[in-house]
Amino acid sequence: MSTLEIKNLHASVETPEGTKQILKGVDLTINSGETHAIMGPNGSGKSTLAYSIAGHPKYQITEGEVLLDGENVLEMSVDERAKAGLFLAMQYPVEVPGVSVSNFLRTAKTALDGEAPKLRTWVKDVKVSMENLRMDPSFAERNVNEGFSGGEKKRHEILQMELLQPKIAILDETDSGLDVDALRIVSEGVNRVAENTGLGVMLITHYTRILNYIKPDYVHVFVNGRVAEQGGPELAERLEAEGYDRFLVDA
Amino acid sequence: MTTTDHSQATADAAHSHGVVIPEGSRGERFTSFDVDAFEMPGPRDEEYRFSALRDLAPVLDQAEAPADGASVDVTAPEGVTVGSLAIGEGPRGTVLVPEDRIAAIASAGSVDALHVKVPANTQVAEPIRIAVTGHATSRSHIVLEAGQFAEATVILEHRGTGAHAGNVEVVTADGAQLKVVSIQQWDDDAVHAGTHHARVGRDATYKHVAVSLGGKAVRLAVTAEYEGTGGSAELLGLYYSDSGQHLEHRTFIDHNAPKCHSNVAYKGALAGKTARSVWIGDVLIRAEAEGTDTYELNRNLVLTDGARADSVPNLEIETGEIEGAGHASATGRFDDEQMFYLRSRGIPEDKARKLVVRGFFADLIHQIGVPEVEEGLMREIDLELEHFEDELVEDEA
User: Fold this and answer.
1) DSSP B304-353
2) If you compute the radius of gyration of chain B from its CA atoms, what whole number of angstroms results?
3) What is d(CA B225, CA B340) in angstroms, rounded to the nearest whole number?
4) Quick check: ipTM above 0.85?
5) Which residues of B lie closer than 8 Å to A, measured between beta carbons?
6) Nearest CA in chain A to B362
7) Are the beta carbons of B344 and A78 separated by less than 8 Å?
8) Which of A78, A93, A160 sits opposite B343 (nearest CB)?
9) Nearest-CA neighbor of A166 among A83, A107, A92, A108?
10) How many CB atoms lie within 10 A of CB A76?
11) What secondary structure letter does DSSP report for B377?
């Protein structure tokens, strides 16, 4: 059982026009086995929340704290956060030329576990996970994200999540740019990992479409750098019907 | 189809491009065996304005070098003949006629040139090894000859210290397949300059690989021309410049015959405040070279602040009847987003950097096609990176 606690989190970013405050006091707690949907309009700071938790150097944390099982995440380096059990599935995964998917996965697994995975079980795990995500075996020999289609990039993110077995995963607009078939495959992957490992999920999305496939336990409406309203799945249905206008007026 | 690919070049602000005013066609350059026919170059000369001129002084000085300035050892498999050629004794001097003072000094200063010949129709599986070990100031001239349909690989290794002016003259007959790998793994204080020039026979395949890792200043002109149609020249290069190193490669493909192919690909990494690299890539497609297919590429990965990479591709086209001609050049900083991505998967910073740099060089290394060189290079790059990590720790301390 793990808990990610975000308390009064403030973050800013340097822009040519000066320092811009983006997160303005985020409070959120995610436990193992829970799926929290973070929904909000463009520019509300959803991605900043994801990257701030993962430790992207672009964002300065100016106030607040992030705790994973009581440990201060903000004092950890980016790779230490991953070792502590955090995972960020990125909206725009980065190309790494010359590094094959299989080399990347094995290097990451070795770094996380502190020892190389047992070859036989590892090869089998990779194979099964790739099959589940309908990924061709040749995929393992391609360079990380290089020439991947949008759907392939997202499946590759979920493949990593399944193999690296984090405690808490943040999925940043994993549904963006996916057609219905790819969305279904990716969602099945998330549900399978959640069921098998008791993963806690922070599902960041602009649209309600993915919530037809991944059922959230909680829905948080994110507006202007903080959580404006929270509720159960019914809140998502209301957003589907009404949009974000109501919150934007308030903001 | 004619393509000139500027997409990479314009995509990157760090790229230095387009400030060169050509002083005439690359093909009309003055040549001579007479050292005095070449003036002592100055920092404003187009040919030397990117060079470490001060460091090159001993290879520009025509004073006689000591006889034991460098040792040259050859290990040749059976079937290969090893001998020497005096000045004026062919094929020496028939392909490489010096285009600059350093090449003229290397030529004039080598009374006996090493001559390694692979006879016609001879396939040599094991590489021919030539080890140049510098002790003081030295000159050398090496003639590599591949007879008709001969197939061979030559690994030329430069180590040691001193200042070395070294020419390599390559003659490939019709249908020959020759690979020449020149490894510059000098001591930190060594200086090395020279010209590696090849004439590629009809339907012959020539591959030259320059690997420059060690030495204070290295300046290699790697050039090729053709003897007939159907020739293929591939010039590959890999360099890793640390603080205090100046690694310069000047490539030139002279498409002087129809239906020939060339590919130039040089990649370098720079780490350290005073690390420098220079790549000048000239390609000339003469009026008679119809059906030419050529591409040249240079990529630089700058790992730290202060390092400087100059990259200048020059393409001269005198006929429109060609298959393709393109160039790409890009100099990029180490990508923070790649590092963040890898580290967010738990990979520590030093390992992530190693992955990215190995990945940067991987496709080039796989093109070399000499397994022992490929494997050795990956190890050398890892060593360079470990050295780099040590420097980072010292900087922070």
Assistant:
1) STT-EEEEEEEEEES-S--SEEEEEEEEEE--HHHHHHHHTTT--HHHHH
2) 20
3) 45
4) yes
5) 335-338, 340-349, 351-352, 355-356, 358-363
6) A98
7) yes
8) A78
9) A83
10) 17
11) H
DSSP string, A148-201: --HHHHHHHHHHHHHHH--SEEEEESTTTT--HHHHHHHHHHHHHHHHHH--EE
Contacts of A54 in chain B (CB under 8 A): 340, 344
- Residue A50 has which token pair? 């994801």
Whether the Cβ atoms of residue B202 and residue B260 lie closer than 8 Å to each other: no
Distance CA A193, CA A211 (A): 16
- Per-residue pLDDT reduced to its tens digit, B261-309: 999 999 999 999 999 999 999 999 999 999 999 999 999 999 988 999 9
Judged by a CB distance cut-off of 8 A, whether residue A108 touches chain B is: yes
**Out of A79, A98, A112, closest to residue B358 by CB:** A98
The answer to whether A93 faces chain B, any CB pair under 8 Å, is: yes
Strand ranges inside chain B, DSSP E: 70-75, 81-86, 112-118, 128-134, 137-146, 151-160, 163-172, 177-185, 191-200, 205-214, 217-226, 232-242, 246-255, 261-271, 276-285, 293-302, 308-317, 324-333
Of A77, A96, A160, the CB nearest to B338: A96
Cα→Cα distances B243→B163, B273, B298, B316, B379, Å: 19, 6, 21, 34, 20
**CB contact at 8 A, B252 and B22:** no
Over residues B334-386, the pLDDT tens digits come to 888 999 999 999 999 999 999 999 999 999 999 999 999 999 998 999 888 88
10 Å Cβ neighbour count for A9? 24
CA distance A208 to chain B (A): 27
